[in-house]
Specification:
alpha/beta, 15% strand, Nucleotidyltransferase, domain 5, 5-stranded mixed β-sheet, 206 residues
Length: 206
């Protein structure tokens, strides 16, 4: 279970606003990559005992905790990077950009950031990368839920704009049904043309 130990240590070191950052949507064939930043209250709250890495939660539980985090967090924000930018700068750089956009949008500027995974090159904010941070650190775990649910909501809306691919169900991931629909319909405006399965369809249709 993620805990509050890293946040508490940073507060003892003099940091006041500590943000956790995580992303959702690095692997899908379509849709944006989304990062979330969450600053939790200085004192551990009982509801935080419900928090887990978003991948370990049911969709219903994620929705419940998403609403709770948005209500109880000191601050939260979401950064979004479109498929076209992903294609132009690659998914890793797009992920870093989404994280930076999330930080910039926070109503409270953090003085330290805990990032899921590795540290971010040339990041202008004081931060630490934590491997498997969404399983270890409460701020990052909360960010993982906000990022995942926010992106799922976006894909459900995009499913209505680009019907036929099953985005509401597959959220843009390369399921067998999605790949089949991709070959049948061709890439949509929100598919990532730089990703290999989409590239193959494009070459086949040229």
């Amino acid at each position: 279970m993620p805990d509050y130990s890293r946040e508490m240590k940073l507060r003892l070191d003099g940091h006041k606003f500590i943000a956790g950052i995580d992303e959702a949507g690095r692997g899908p064939l379509s849709g944006p990559v989304v990062a979330a930043a969450v600053i939790l209250p200085a004192v551990h709250q009982p509801w935080l005992n419900l928090i887990k890495d978003s991948k370990e939660l049911t969709p219903k539980k994620r929705e419940y905790l998403f609403a709770l985090i948005c209500k109880e967090a000191l601050a939260f924000s979401v950064g979004i990077v479109s498929p076209r930018i992903i294609d132009s700068i690659n998914i890793l750089q797009a992920t870093f950009l989404a994280m930076e956009r999330a930080v910039v949008k926070l109503p409270v500027l953090p003085d330290f950031i805990l990032v899921d995974g590795f540290s971010i090159p040339d990041f202008k904010y004081s931060h630490e990368g934590i491997i498997k941070g969404d399983k270890l650190c409460l701020s990052i775990a909360c960010a993982s839920i906000v990022a995942k649910v926010s992106r799922d909501h976006m894909m459900e809306k995009l499913d209505k704009i680009y019907p036929g691919y099953g985005f509401a169900k597959n959220k843009g991931y390369g399921t067998r049904e999605h790949i089949s629909n991709l070959w049948r319909l061709g890439p949509s405006a929100i598919h990532r043309h730089s990703f290999a399965p989409v590239k193959r369809v494009i070459r086949n249709r040229e």
